[in-house]
Amino acid sequence: MRAPIPREDDFRSRLRSPAVAARIGLWLGICFGVAFLTGLISHYAQQPHQPLPFPTRPSWGYRVTQGLHVVAGTAAVPLLLVKLWTVFPKLFSRPPRRLAELLLHGAERVSIAVLVAAAIFQLSTGLANTAQWYPWSFHFRATHYAIGWVAIGALLVHVAVKLPLIRSALASDLDSDALDRPGTARAAGVLSRRGLLRTTWGAAGIATLATAGVSVPWLRQVSVLGVRSGAGPQDVPINKSAASAGVLATATSATYRLTVRAGGRSMSFSLSDLQAMRQTTASLPIACVEGWSAGATWTGVPVRDLLDRVGAPVGSDVTVTSLQRSGPFRVTTLPANFADDRRSLVAIELGGQPLSIDHGFPCRLIAPDRPGVLQTKWLKSLEVDA
Amino acid sequence: MIRVALLGAGLSAAAYGGLLLARRGWANLEATLTWLIGGVVIHDAVLAPVTLAVAWTALRLVRRERLAPWAVGVVLLAPLTLLAIPVLGRFGARSDNPTLLDRNYWAGWCGLVLVVVVGILVARLAERRQRSRVPVPEPVPVEGGAHGPRDGGR
Question: CB-based contacts of B124: which residues, under 8 Å, 6+ apart?
């Protein structure tokens, strides 16, 4: 009678070899590294107070890094699943008898458990977030960030533990048996090792092509699983509608005024006041934290020109407030280097037409290289504290 | 030396992440732990056994030499289907925002399945044609024949 739980050497496939695992692991590690670094960039860009100012150039920097963040995470799904398949027998390895070895074995297994849990967590919550699906009660942004550190830390520990094995696996031939577990079959099974690797790269490629159109315009037709087709009012998708922000009445009111204040000096601008000022047109992407982005042409008044009217000194951080009733981004900070950039606009037109209500009518902020959630719509006030 | 540095950096990064998580309070931590553990349980206790069962069944239904295209199809499509769950289910759709989840995702998914299936068929056909054209110089030993009937398919 056999025990219901399998043993490590019950798994005999030639594909479940360190030679395969190391090669997939390398690319999985690269994907996690890219996602971690681009995640750090996004986190930093959203900090209201930055010791080193986030750059305003290139204007597409945030768009590209956040597109990469989601692409790396999406490509990592097939890589992670195949990687876990190749090392699955390890789950059933017998603990050693001697205490010192047992402790080491236990520590390694804990680190693997943390790594697998954090990796699955990051990919599943990240993917759900791109589709704005939040079936959990934890705070997504803070938790995804925290577990990002846990995942990259556990990955580094894993690489430290396995480094000699990784090195010899990558240096030796893919079909070498030298590093295989005892009992691994010598003859090819259903797929060859090369066949499995090629298929895995293919799976990562298809996953990328099927979704990347949300940030790569020429892939839009191909990305049949993309969260957005790219369509929307004035050919630009939206994240928050005017209805959900509760601004339908206030934004269209005849008494609407944009307040600009520096210290004790304050001025009010109606939409026609803004239209009467010298207009600047800039091509700037709107790039969301969730990875989608779109390029667009915006026309309006440079933020700096409005600040000059109330005598706000160059180099001032600006507090930007929206008409929206609530939400974590109702009040945000526009750092001084962004406020002073001539391409940072209080935009009143998109693609040559007045802003639609869902794009922030009567006026919105649009600045280069800035997270979409901080491109405040339905502007209420710009304020500089003396 | 490199390994010590990696270990040190890894432990510090993970500890920092743990600290950030702890700062969010107990309720947040509890919900996070549920998802952390749930993900591992879903993989180890559901996905992995199902994969084993599918492979086990396939090996008994189809001759081993004919299974390769099926295996390729599963590796290409199973992860793709898992990562499409949020869009296929349209769980995040909102009536006030028609620009979100605005494709027919089931049609797209069927299209991808069709492309993969056709791709595999074409590759098989090309392979067969090539094999029938090139004369085999000497008899090729049957793969895996000397090692018993089922070594390696698990």
Answer: B69
**Hey, are the CB atoms on B147 and A146 less than 8 Å from each other?**
no
pTM above threshold 0.90: yes
Mention the CATH class of domain A242-384.
alpha beta
Residues A88-98 pLDDT 10s: 999 999 999 99
Amino acid at A132: Q
Half-sphere CA count of A59, side-chain side, radius 13 A: 16
**Residue B82 contacts A, CB cutoff 8 Å:** yes
CATH of region A8-219, choose from 1.20.950, 3.80.10, 1.20.120, 2.40.160: 1.20.950
Parse chain A into domains and list their residue ranges: 8-219, 242-384
CB contact under 8 Å between B75 and A138, yes or no, is: no
CA–centroid distance for A301 within its chain: 30
Task: Quote the tokens at residue A281.
Answer: 């047109």
Determine whether the interchain pair A149/B153 forms a contact, defined as Cβ–Cβ distance below 8 Å. Answer: no
Q: Are strands A331-334 and A318-322 parallel, antiparallel or unpaired?
A: antiparallel
| Segments in A179-315 forming alpha helices (H) | 193-211, 242-245, 248-252, 271-276, 303-309
What are the pLDDT digits (tens) for A339-368? 999 999 999 999 999 999 999 999 999 999
H-helix or E-strand spanning residue A272:
helix A271-276
What is the helix (H) or strand (E) element at residue A349, kind and residue range? strand A345-350
Q: What is the ipTM of this complex?
A: 0.94
